Amino acid sequence: MAMETRTGVNRKKNVDIIRPRDLGASKSSEPALLRRELGDVLRAYRQRQGRTLREVSSDARVSLGYLSEVERGQKEASSELLLSICQALNVPLGHVLRLVADRIDLSEGRVPPSFRVPDTVQEALAEAGVN
User: Fold this and answer.
1) Which residue among 13, 26, 85, 115 has its CA within the 20 to 30 Å range from the CA of 6?
2) Contacts of 20 (CB under 8 A, 6+ apart)
3) How far apart are the C-alpha atoms of 98 and 128, rounded to whole Å?
4) Which of 82, 7, 2, 10 is nearest to 51 (CA)?
5) Contacts for 32 with CB less than 8 Å, ≥ 6 apart
6) pLDDT tens, 32-54?
7) Number of neighbouring beta carbons within 10 Å of residue 131
8) What 3-state DSSP class applies to 95?
């Protein structure tokens, strides 16, 4: 399993980052909140890199307390702050937002686009006689 130098994240384990809080229930009575899902993804990246809140908050130039609140889903991060945190974690902002969107899709019972099998693959399997 190759470690990505850019993010320090093992590719095979990204599934843990995508998995929403309550995957067991098909539809939770409480809707997924963007700030909570975003905080979970940011925390997962930080922990996978073996970094502390203090290290990331220093690199992102945000207070430790505020970063902690963002990770716990108690504060909404501005786009500027989110970009700063992503840069401190060395993770592309677009990647974080895609993971958050996938988590919300899963929590709402939808299959995220990144999990779907393209129609061309199904056609190729049918032509090959594989079911």
Assistant:
1) 115
2) 32, 37, 40, 103, 104, 106, 107
3) 33
4) 7
5) 20, 21, 103, 104, 107, 108
6) 889 999 999 999 999 999 999 99
7) 5
8) helix
